[in-house]
Design a protein that fits this description.
The complex is a heterotrimer.
Chain A (H helix, E strand, L loop, with lengths): L4 H11 L4 H19 L3 H22 L6 E3 L4 E3 L1 H22 L13 H19 L3 H19 L6 H32 L4 H10 L4 H19 L7 H8 L2 H25 L13 H20 L5 H21 L3 H32 L10 H4 L1 H15 L5 H13 L4 H30 L14 H19 L2 H9 L8
Antiparallel strand pairs in A: 1-2
Chain B lengths: L6 H26 L6 H4 L18 H30 L1 H24 L38
Helix pairs in contact in B: 3-4
Chain C lengths: L4 H21 L3 H26 L3 H31 L13
Helix pairs in contact in C: 1-2, 2-3
The chains are: A mainly alpha, B mainly alpha, C mainly alpha.
Chain lengths: 501, 153, 101
C-alpha cells in the first residue's frame, strides 16, 4: 500500500472502475429519492424504475465476472467470483422483494401514505449487501453491516400505525445495536493484537507471529457475536421471531433471505481468511468446533420451537433459524466443497423462502390473517396459491424433487468423510429435517384436508400477475431441483475467493 | 516534593479543588442553618399558589426533529475536516469528491424540505371548556333525589 | 507515573461492561440507547489507544466511522422510540410485550 498522497489518490481513481455496480445502485437510490419528491403517482413508477435499475446493475455485475481477482480502494473492497455470485443473489432477492411489495396490501394504499421511501431504503439495503459481500477490511465489514442493519430497522418499523411493527423494530434495533457493539469491540481487540485491519494482513500477521491465544479467542468470539446476529443463529437469535412476525411480510421475506446471505458471505470470508492455520498446523482460533456447537443448537432449537407456533410468520422465523444451522454446517467444512454447498443452498433458499412468504402475503391479502388455523379450507378456495405453498414447504423440508433436497444433499455429503464429529452433525441434520416435516405439513393439512370454519366455498383467487409470479417461483423450485447442474457449477466456479496475493 | 506534577495530576488537582469548594459550601450551610420543617414548608413552590398537576411536562417532538437533522449535518461537517487538510495538495479531484459527497447530503436536505419535516410545528393550544351559562351548579352539589317512600300494602 | 496501554484498555473494558449491563437491566428505552452509545464510545477509546501505541493511523480512521454510525443509529433508534410512544404512550420496555414467545 502506498504511503504518499499522490499515489493513494491514483489508486483510488483507478479503483472506481471496479466499483461500477455499487455506483449504479447509489445512482438508482438518488433517482428514487428524487422521483419520490417530484412525482405524485408513485405506486407504479417507482417499483418499475427500481426493477430497471436492478437489471442495469445486474448487467454491470455480470461484466465483473471477467475481471481479475484483485483488491481495490486501498485493499478495502475485493472483486472476485465469490462476491459476484452473492451480488447476483442479492439482486435477485431485491427484485423479488420489489415485485412482492407491489402486490402486498399491508403496504398498500390504505395503510401507507408514502411508499417511495420504502423502495429507496430497500435499494440502500441491497447496496449495503453488495458492500458486505465484497468487504475485505474490518472497517468496510462494519460499515456495510451497519448500512444493512439500519435499513432493516427502518423497513421493519415502516407501518407506523401498527403497534406490532414498531415493537418489532424496537426489539430489532436494541439487539442489533448491542451485537454491533460487541462486534466492533472484538474488531478493536483484533486490531490491537495484530496492528492491521485488512483481513489478509491479519492472516499474514497471525501465521508469522505469536499472538496471545486467549485474547484472540475472545476477540473472535465477540466478532462471531455480531455475525451470528446477522444470520440468526443461536444464541443470537432472540430478535428473529418477533421481527419476522411484526414486520410487514415483504420486508420479512427480504430480510430472511438477503441479510442472511450477506451475513454468510461476510462470515465465510472472515473466518476462512482471517484466522489461518498456525505453523503448528492447527487453527489459531478453533472456530470449527465453535461453529459446530452453534449449528447443532440452532438446528435443534429452530426445529423444535417451530412445532408450537401457530403464527405462520413466526414458524417460518424458527425454521429460518434452523436453516442457519444447516448452512453453518456447510461453513465449518472449511474446504471448497462445503463453501460450494453453502452458496448453492443460499440460492435455493432465496427462491423457496421468497416464494413461501409471497404466498403468505397473497393469503393474508384475502383472509387478513397469518394464523395457521385460518388456513383451513384454502385448498378449495385458492387452488393455485395453495399448490404453490405446498411446493415451497416441501422444498423447505428438503424432499425430492425440489431444490431444497439438492441443497441439503450437497451440504450433508460435504460433511461425510471428514470425521466422526461431522458425521454426527450430518445425522442430526437429517433427523431434524424429519422433525421439520411435521410443522411444515401442518399447513397443507389445514389447507387441503380441513374445512374452513364458516364453511365458505367461494373461490377467491388472486390476480393473474400474482399467480404468474407464484407459478414462476414454483417452477424455479422444481426446475432447479431437477436440473441443478448449471447452478451447482456456477457455485463451484465462484468458490475462487481472493487468496493472498 | 522533588517530583513534578504531570498534566493529569494538574487536572486532578483542579477537579479536587472544585469539588472541595462546593462540598465545603454545602456542609457549612448544613451545619449552621436551623432545621425546623413543617408540612406547608415542604410542599412544592408554584408562585404562591397550590401546586396543581404533575411537574413533568410532555416533551415536544419538534425539538427532537431539529436535533436529529442537526446531528446528521454535524457528522457531515465532521467528514469535511480531514478532507480540508489534504485539499490543497490534491486539488481538482478532491473538489469533485467533496462536491459529490455534499451533493448527496444536500439532496437529502432538499427531500426533507419538500416533505415538510423542517417546518416548525407550533402545537395547537388546548383551550379548556368554560361554562357558557352564567351560573352553573357543579353536579356534585345537586341534591340527590329523594326516593319516593314505598307504600306498603 | 506513565499512563500505559493497559490503563486505557481497563477503562475501555469497564465502560463497555457498564454499557452492556445497562442495556440488560434498564427499562426505559431511551436509557437503553444511551447505554448503547456508551458501549460504542468505549470501543472508540480502545481503538484510539491501540492506534497511539501501535503508531498506526488505521485505528483513528475507524473511530471516525464508528462515531458516524453511532450517531445514525441513535437517530434511527430514537425515531423508532417516538413511533412506538405515539402508539403506546409508554417507553417502558416491560410494557411493550405484544409479541411473545
Amino acid at each position: 500500500m502506498p504511503n504518499n498522497l499522490p499515489e493513494i489518490i491514483e489508486q483510488v481513481k483507478l479503483s472506481l472502475g471496479a466499483f461500477v455496480p455499487e455506483i449504479s445502485l447509489s445512482a438508482l437510490f438518488l433517482l428514487v429519492i428524487t422521483l419520490d419528491m417530484v412525482l405524485n403517482e408513485k405506486r407504479v413508477v417507482i417499483p418499475m424504475v427500481s426493477l430497471v435499475g436492478f437489471v442495469i446493475t445486474g448487467f454491470f455485475t455480470w461484466q465483473q465476472l471477467d475481471m481479475p481477482n484483485q483488491e481495490y480502494f486501498l485493499r478495502m473492497h475485493v472483486v472476485d467470483p465469490f462476491a459476484v455470485f452473492f451480488k447476483f443473489l442479492f439482486l435477485g432477492a431485491g427484485a423479488l422483494a420489489v415485485l412482492i411489495t407491489m402486490d402486498s396490501e399491508e403496504l398498500g394504499e390504505k395503510n401507507v401514505a408514502n411508499i417511495g421511501e420504502y423502495y429507496a431504503v430497500l435499494i440502500a439495503m441491497v447496496l449495503g449487501m453488495f458492500l458486505m459481500a465484497s468487504a475485505s477490511d474490518m472497517l468496510m465489514m462494519f460499515l456495510a453491516l451497519e448500512l444493512v442493519s439500519i435499513s432493516s430497522y427502518i423497513l421493519t418499523g415502516y407501518l407506523k400505525h401498527q403497534i406490532k411493527s414498531s415493537e418489532a423494530s424496537l426489539k430489532y434495533i436494541i439487539y442489533g445495536a448491542v451485537s454491533s457493539g460487541l462486534m466492533v469491540y472484538g474488531m478493536s481487540l483484533i486490531y490491537g493484537l495484530t496492528g492491521q485491519t485488512n483481513i489478509y494482513e491479519i492472516a499474514k500477521f497471525i501465521s508469522a507471529n505469536e499472538v496471545d491465544e486467549v485474547t484472540l479467542t475472545l476477540a473472535a468470539l465477540l466478532v462471531m457475536g455480531g455475525f451470528g446476529y446477522k444470520i440468526g443463529a443461536v444464541p443470537f437469535h432472540f430478535w428473529s421471531p418477533d421481527v419476522y412476525e411484526g414486520a410487514p411480510t415483504p420486508v420479512t421475506a427480504f430480510l430472511s433471505v438477503g441479510s442472511k446471505a450477506a451475513g454468510f458471505a461476510m462470515l465465510i470470508r472472515f473466518f476462512k481468511v482471517a484466522i489461518p492455520a498456525e505453523p503448528t498446523g492447527e487453527l489459531a482460533f478453533d472456530w470449527v468446533n465453535f461453529f459446530a456447537l452453534i449449528a447443532l443448537v440452532s438446528m435443534l432449537l429452530g426445529n423444535f420451537a417451530a412445532i408450537w407456533q401457530s403464527n405462520v410468520k413466526r414458524m417460518l422465523a424458527y425454521s429460518s433459524i434452523a436453516h442457519a444451522g444447516y448452512l453453518l454446517l456447510g461453513v465449518l467444512v472449511a474446504d471448497d466443497l462445503g463453501t460450494q454447498a453453502v452458496m448453492f443452498y443460499l440460492a435455493a433458499y432465496t427462491v423457496m423462502t421468497v416464494g413461501a412468504f409471497y404466498v403468505v402475503i397473497l393469503i393474508a391479502n384475502k383472509i387478513g390473517s397469518d394464523d395457521v388455523n385460518d388456513y383451513r379450507g384454502l385448498g378449495k378456495r385458492m387452488p393455485l396459491t395453495a399448490a404453490a405453498l405446498t411446493v415451497f414447504l416441501v422444498s423447505l423440508t428438503g424432499l425430492p424433487p425440489t431444490v431444497g433436497f439438492i441443497g441439503k444433499y450437497m451440504i450433508f455429503t460435504a460433511l461425510l468423510g471428514k470425521g466422526t464429529v461431522f458425521l454426527t452433525l450430518a445425522i442430526i441434520g437429517v433427523l431434524t429435517s424429519a422433525v421439520s416435516l411435521y410443522y411444515y405439513f401442518k399447513i397443507p393439512l389445514n389447507m387441503y384436508l380441513r374445512e374452513s370454519e364458516d364453511g365458505a366455498e367461494t373461490p377467491m383467487e388472486s390476480s393473474a400477475f400474482a399467480n404468474a409470479l407464484a407459478a414462476f417461483l414454483m417452477i424455479l423450485t422444481i426446475g432447479f431441483g431437477l436440473f441443478f447442474t448449471p447452478l451447482a457449477n456456477f457455485a463451484k466456479n465462484s468458490v475462487i475467493m481472493l487468496v493472498m496475493n | 516534593m522533588g517530583q513534578e506534577i504531570s498534566e493529569f495530576g494538574k487536572v486532578f488537582l483542579f477537579l479536587a479543588v472544585g469539588v472541595i469548594f462546593v462540598v465545603l459550601g454545602f456542609v457549612t450551610s448544613r451545619l449552621i442553618r436551623p432545621h425546623r420543617p413543617y408540612t406547608e414548608k415542604l410542599t412544592t413552590y408554584e408562585c404562591g399558589e397550590e401546586p396543581k398537576g404533575s411537574a413533568w411536562v410532555q416533551f415536544n417532538i419538534r425539538f427532537y426533529v431539529v436535533a436529529l437533522i442537526f446531528i446528521i449535518f454535524d457528522v457531515e461537517v465532521l467528514f469535511l475536516y480531514p478532507w480540508a487538510t489534504i485539499f490543497k495538495q490534491v486539488g481538482g479531484y478532491a473538489l469533485a469528491v467533496a462536491l459529490v459527497f455534499l451533493g448527496v447530503l444536500t439532496l437529502g436536505l432538499i427531500y426533507e424540505w419538500k416533505k415538510g419535516y423542517i417546518n416548525w410545528v407550533v402545537p395547537t393550544p388546548n383551550i379548556p371548556k368554560m361554562p357558557t351559562k352564567k351560573f352553573e351548579k357543579p353536579k356534585s352539589l345537586e341534591k340527590p333525589k329523594v326516593a319516593e317512600p314505598e307504600t306498603t300494602a | 507515573m506513565h499512563i500505559e496501554l493497559n490503563h486505557y484498555l481497563w477503562l475501555s473494558a469497564f465502560m463497555f461492561t457498564v454499557g452492556v449491563i445497562g442495556v440488560l437491566v434498564r427499562r426505559n428505552a431511551i436509557v437503553i440507547f444511551m447505554c448503547v452509545e456508551l458501549m460504542l464510545n468505549a470501543v472508540n477509546l480502545s481503538f484510539v489507544a491501540f492506534s497511539h501505541f501501535l503508531s498506526d493511523i488505521q485505528g483513528q480512521m475507524m473511530v471516525f466511522f464508528v462515531m458516524t454510525v453511532a450517531a445514525a443509529e441513535a437517530a434511527v433508534g430514537l425515531a423508532i422510540v417516538i413511533s412506538l410512544f405515539r402508539n403506546r404512550q409508554t417507553v417502558n420496555i416491560d410494557e411493550i410485550n405484544l409479541l411473545k414467545g
